[in-house]
């Protein structure tokens, strides 16, 4: 397998610069979202002791432009820094493209 093949993903993935990370709100806790795709996301796991692999996580993502999306997914990997959520529901390819355009606009202005 070539490097290109091993890095291919099933869904488009958007990796956020630190300053542009949306916030995921679960209950009363807020977490920075580092990556999103149509079927998964990764968020900061500073409070990861609240989650276990296999937990169904529901919450709200608040993007930098004020838009929000209700999401739900299964915790598939947890370490002390990050929680990886799969089987994600609530985000669309359109959400991701809009986010990508917003990030490009913000950085193009600087």
Description of the molecule:
The structure is a single chain. This protein has 110 residues and is an alpha+beta fold. The chain has helices at residues 3-6, 93-108; strands spanning 13-15, 23-26, 29-37, 41-44, 56-62, 68-78, 82-89. A six-stranded antiparallel barrel has the order 2-3-4-7-6-5.
Helix content: 10-25%
Structural class designation:
alpha+beta
C-alpha-based Rg, rounded: 14 Å
What order do the strands of the largest sheet run in, or round the barrel if closed?
Answer: 2-3-4-7-6-5
The biggest beta sheet, please? Answer: 6 strands, antiparallel, barrel
Average pLDDT confidence is 86
Number of strand elements: 7
Ranges where pLDDT stays below 50 over 5 or more residues in a row are none
- Alpha-carbon distance between the two ends: 40 Å
**Structure annotation, total helices:** 2
The best one-word shape is globular
The fraction of residues assigned to DSSP E strands is 35-45%
Reading the helices and strands in chain order gives HEEEEEEEH
Structure characteristics:
110 residues; alpha+beta; 6-stranded antiparallel barrel; 2 helices; 42% strand
Brief sketch in words of this structure:
By secondary structure, the protein is α+β, with helices and mostly antiparallel strands. The protein contains 2 helices and 7 strands; from the N terminus they run H-E-E-E-E-E-E-E-H.
């Amino acid at each position: 397998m070539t490097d290109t093949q091993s890095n291919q993903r099933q869904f488009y993935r958007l990796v956020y610069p630190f300053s542009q990370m949306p916030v995921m709100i679960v209950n009363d806790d807020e977490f920075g979202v580092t990556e999103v795709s149509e079927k998964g996301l990764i968020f900061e796991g500073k409070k990861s002791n609240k989650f276990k692999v296999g937990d169904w996580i529901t919450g709200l993502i608040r993007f930098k432009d004020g838009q929000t999306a209700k999401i739900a997914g299964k915790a598939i990997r947890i370490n002390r820094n990050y929680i990886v959520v799969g089987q994600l529901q609530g985000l669309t390819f359109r959400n991701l493209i809009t986010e990508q355009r917003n990030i490009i606009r913000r950085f193009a202005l600087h």
